[in-house]
């Protein structure tokens, strides 16, 4: 009887190598598939679970605001219960010289605020940007609201204007889709103060002047003047037409808090421009994307002027806020200054100093004298050039508040992200390699 032929050792080894190569290639290809990105919360679907908010939900659905909310995340909605709505909301808004759509925009805060966040508010309150600010019709920063703690109630929401304006008391939390949508009930409609009566709803939006945005927002005079004087602000317009930009703007207090030995102001103009570009991501990232970021190391505009892997920011969520680590400085985002695709501007607590140009000693942060100027850096090859991102980083899974009676409805309306395939592919590769390598 003929026995089974055994392949020669060399042939068996070659066959094993082919198997290992094929398995590794398949797993690597799967790991490199683009990560799914969660979309914004369907606000209308969330509100359907609450009949007491039906009137406010109808106002949103019948206005342009409903479309503007599509795709947005990291929001707080100040919803007015049926019993607290005026008999004619349109007439109520018109009596104050405002358009109803802008009044509704004033009830959309571009930041996720949970009841726990409200309880931690400082005595001076917190300035939060609203959707109305993104229209360009709000004088200065009057498209923001000041949220302050108020004893037994959760908070008071009012205009930051020095002259009297309407305000509302937060009655309680309705529901939440963590880090994407928080719905708070307020006791009445809030009308934006200082409304520009000459503004037209149909007026086409002007190009975003980030230097003016910072100047109007107050507390950013140093950042605005440095951007203007350096010419870096002129580079933003082309970026806005692409994937957009995200700007981390240090406050005047952040500049005042720089250690005496950092020598930032005494740097040559071209090196000072590198520091300013280091505060900009070459993509539009709303706050929700930064809060749920998967790939924390992000290239900056300064990276594109040097080489891949340099001048990057490490962005993570820590203690309920977004933390930014440069390798020398650890800062946090303190508030949203402006957010309208394709431009996002956030206030940061410290000036972001790159480790390529500064070092930390026991007593101070000092400039690195030996660091080569940007022009002296080696030219990058096309293969190593940083990729300009065209969409926000992937978001973590979100779900409705399990403690709320309407949790099922919220969870159905909330976006979810399927577990990324790359993690289990890499884990499977580690498991299979010890089994396949002895065959080689």
TrEMBL record:
Location in the cell: Cell membrane
Predominant location category: membrane
Protein name per Swiss-Prot or TrEMBL: FAS1 domain-containing protein
Annotated Pfam families: Fasciclin
Signal peptide: 1-40
GO biological process, one term: mucilage biosynthetic process involved in seed coat development
InterPro entries xrefs: FAS1_dom_sf (IPR036378), FAS1_domain (IPR000782), Plant_FLA (IPR033254)
SMART domains in the cross-refs: FAS1
Residue segments, region Disordered: 376-401
Organism taxonomic ancestry: Eukaryota, Viridiplantae, Streptophyta, Embryophyta, Tracheophyta
Membrane spanning residue stretches: none
Every FAS1 domain range: 40-190, 207-352
Family, as annotated: Belongs to the fasciclin-like AGP family.
Membrane topology reported for the UniProt record: Lipid-anchor; GPI-anchor
Keywords for this protein: Cell membrane, Glycoprotein, GPI-anchor, Lipoprotein, Membrane, Signal
GO (cellular component) term, any one: plasma membrane
Biased composition (Low complexity): 377-386
Protein origin, superkingdom: Eukaryota
């Amino acid at each position: 009887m003929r026995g089974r032929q055994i392949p020669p050792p060399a042939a068996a080894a070659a066959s094993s190598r082919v198997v290992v190569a094929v398995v590794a290639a398949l797993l690597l290809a799967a790991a490199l598939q683009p990560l799914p990105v969660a979309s914004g919360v369907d606000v209308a679907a969330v509100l359907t679970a609450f009949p007491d908010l039906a009137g406010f939900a109808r106002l949103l659905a019948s206005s342009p605001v409903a479309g503007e909310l599509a795709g947005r995340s990291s929001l707080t909605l100040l919803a007015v219960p049926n019993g607290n709505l005026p008999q004619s909301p349109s007439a109520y808004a018109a009596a104050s010289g405002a358009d109803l759509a802008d009044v509704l925009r004033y009830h959309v805060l571009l930041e996720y605020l949970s009841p726990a966040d409200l309880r931690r508010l400082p005595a001076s309150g917190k300035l939060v940007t609203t959707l109305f600010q993104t229209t360009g019709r709000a004088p200065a920063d009057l498209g923001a609201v000041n949220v302050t703690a108020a004893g037994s109630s959760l908070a008071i929401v009012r205009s930051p204007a020095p002259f009297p304006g309407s305000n509302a008391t937060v009655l309680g939390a309705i529901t939440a889709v963590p880090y994407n949508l928080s719905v708070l009930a307020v006791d009445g409609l809030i009308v934006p103060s200082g409304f520009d009566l000459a503004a037209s709803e149909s007026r086409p939006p002007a190009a975003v002047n980030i230097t003016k945005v910072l100047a109007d927002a107050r507390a950013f005079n140093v950042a605005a003047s440095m951007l203007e004087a350096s010419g870096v602000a002129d580079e933003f317009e082309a970026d806005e037409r692409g994937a957009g930009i995200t700007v981390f703007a240090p406050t005047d207090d952040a500049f005042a808090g720089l250690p005496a030995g950092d020598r930032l102001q005494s740097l040559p103009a071209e090196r000072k421009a590198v520091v300013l570009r280091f505060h900009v991501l070459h993509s539009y990232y709303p706050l929700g994307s930064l809060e749920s970021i998967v790939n924390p190391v992000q290239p900056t505009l300064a990276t594109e002027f040097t080489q891949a892997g340099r001048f990057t920011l490490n962005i993570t969520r820590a203690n309920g806020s977004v933390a930014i680590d440069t390798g020398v400085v650890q800062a946090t985002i303190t508030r949203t200054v402006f957010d309208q695709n394709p431009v996002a501007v956030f206030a940061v607590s410290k000036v972001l100093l790159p480790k390529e140009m500064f070092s930390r000693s026991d007593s101070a942060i000092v400039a690195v004298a030996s660091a080569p100027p940007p022009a002296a850096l080696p030219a990058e090859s096309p293969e190593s050039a940083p990729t300009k991102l065209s969409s926000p980083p992937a978001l973590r899974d979100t779900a409705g508040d399990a403690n709320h009676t309407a949790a099922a409805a919220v969870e159905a309306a909330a976006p979810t992200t399927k577990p990324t395939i790359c993690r289990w592919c890499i884990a499977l590769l580690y498991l299979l390699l010890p089994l396949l390598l002895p065959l080689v």
